[in-house]
Amino acid sequence: GQQVMQIPQYQHVxxxxxxxxxxxxxxxxxxIQWYKQRPGGHxxxxxxxxKSGEVKKQKRLTFQFGEAKKNSSLHITATQxxxxxxxxxxxxxSSYKLIFGSGTRLLVRP
Amino acid sequence: xxxxxxxPTHLIKTRGQQVTLRCSPISGHTSVYWYQxxxxxxxxxxxxxxxxxxxxxxxxxxxxxxxxxxxxxSELNVNxxxxxxxxxxxxxxxxxxxLGYGYTFGSGTRLTVV
Lengths: 110, 114
Hints:
The structure holds 2 protein chains of 2 kinds.
Chain A (H helix, E strand, L loop, with lengths): L3 E4 L2 E5 L4 E7 L6 E6 L5 E7 L5 E4 L2 E5 L5 E6 L8 E8 L5 E3 L3 E6 L1
Parallel strand pairs in A: 2-11
Antiparallel strand pairs in A: 1-3, 3-8, 4-5, 4-9, 6-7, 7-8, 9-10, 9-11
Chain B lengths: L4 E3 L2 E4 L5 E6 L6 E7 L6 E7 L2 E5 L6 E5 L5 E5 L8 E8 L9 E2 L3 E5 L1
Parallel strand pairs in B: 2-11
Antiparallel strand pairs in B: 1-3, 3-8, 4-5, 4-9, 5-6, 7-8, 9-10, 9-11
């Protein structure tokens, strides 16, 4: 079955540093979604990318979808303590199951 | 607009028992999804219901089952509980089929099996 892998598993940064998490799928994705889960919370939908090579921005967050639609990245510029949490990518498989990556846990030192 | 609501929030059960978890989707959302999140791990797809029908299920044994009611609310049933069933069970809803819409998650039910 489809697998969605994310790296790194953990990232510990100093406040103000940048952060990037990468997502790779074993198969071509129809779309990719990104979610954020704060400690003790539930996943919250951030964005969806659909087109090959698509780039979207939300303030300090930049999301990219690869040309082959098999990989994606989330980049945060100048992290803040409010960015702490686990970031998940998720892709739809051929049977419309949304498969989540293993997540990248971001820790920010103030 | 009320979000996705799940009940109960916490539950402690003994191995071998049965449990029922409940989920009410956002008004207007017809699809409901169930995920299992073991402590510190990712989300594993359990079940997808749409318009009252089970549309897909993940790689879980048959003792995990559920249903969706005419008002689109849903139940997840787990029979013969095992220790490894201890996890956060998340319900999510979306408007229609899962193509083009993000999922809205509830706060989850924390199940502990002892």
